[in-house]
Amino acid sequence: MREIDYSSWADYLVDLIDLYPLKSHRLLELGAGNCSISKHLVERYPDYIVSDLSYTMLLAANPKFRRVTADMTKLPFKKEFDVIFSIFDSVNYLINDEAFISFLSEAGKILNDDGVLMFDVSLEKNSKKYIKQLNRDGSVNGIKYFQKSDYDKKARIHTNTFNINIDGAVFSETHHQKIYLFEEYFLFAEEAGLRVIDCFDCFTFDDANSRTERAQFVLGKN
């Protein structure tokens, strides 16, 4: 399966954060999973909290991290943050408008006045381009896997089913992601009382558009 260069991804996030005149750097990561990118950022930003809906995923992370189990549509935090972010199209798992707007509203409540909310999204071009490549099987370190990918163009739901075979024991899980239209993210931000400061073609600083495969959004308070 494809290797993710989290170190380079972290460098891109640092460059993004440096674009904005923040008074301090208190960070909150949403959908952190097992904290693959967090370990590349925490030394630079020691005031850093990682969160994920899955308690099990957070348990696999370095216990030195400040870890909080949290639903990004119902955030439990009381203090404010300078940077709230999520990576790897985690927000595409919010599969209806209400959930996405709730996520933005909840983040806005705990965002400092000069803070930024950053997240990347997978757009329709990405789903259409890679649909065949994501139907694949193989083996990594003796663990066999099979991935089946399907994109429902009408519902704009991308489904990935994974079967993993470990010593004859088969584990299966299915992921559903909503592929929102590019323009919808701007409407969601407005409805949540936020504004889009920048929207880049992911991993660059070029402006994104509806033909972009992956977009990096940076939002702030109105």
Spatial sequence of strands, sheet with the most strands: 3-2-1-4-5-11-10
CATH C-level name of the largest domain: Alpha Beta
Count of separate structural domains: 2
Helix proportion of residues, in percent? 10-25%
Q: What is the H/E order?
A: HEEHEEHEHEEEEHEE
Strand content: 35-45%
Low-confidence stretches: none
The structure class reads: alpha/beta
CATH topology of the largest domain: Rossmann fold
Q: How would a textbook summarize the main sheet?
A: 7 strands, mixed
CATH homologous superfamily grouping of the largest domain: Vaccinia Virus protein VP39
Helix run count: 5
Radius of gyration based on Cα positions: 18 Å
Overall morphology: globular
The CA-CA distance between the termini, in Å, is: 41 Å
Structure explained in plain terms:
- By secondary structure, the protein is of the alpha/beta class.
- It has 2 domains: 6-123 and 181-221, Vaccinia Virus protein VP39 (Rossmann fold); 125-177, N-terminal domain of TfIIb, CATH 2.20.25.
- It is 22% helix and 36% strand.
- It contains 5 helices and 11 strands; from the N terminus they run H-E-E-H-E-E-H-E-H-E-E-E-E-H-E-E.
- It has helices at residues 6-18, 55-59, 97-109, 124-130, 182-191, and strands spanning 27-29, 48-52, 66-69, 81-86, 111-122, 136-140, 143-152, 157-166, 169-178, 194-201, 214-221.
Keywords:
5 helices, alpha/beta, 22% helix, 222 residues, N-terminal domain of TfIIb, globular, four-stranded antiparallel sheet
List the helices and strands and how they pair.
Blueprint: H1 6-18, E1 27-29, E2 48-52, H2 55-59, E3 66-69, E4 81-86, H3 97-109, E5 111-122, H4 124-130, E6 136-140, E7 143-152, E8 157-166, E9 169-178, H5 182-191, E10 194-201, E11 214-221
Parallel strand pairs: 1-2, 1-4, 2-3, 4-5
Antiparallel strand pairs: 5-11, 6-7, 7-8, 8-9, 10-11
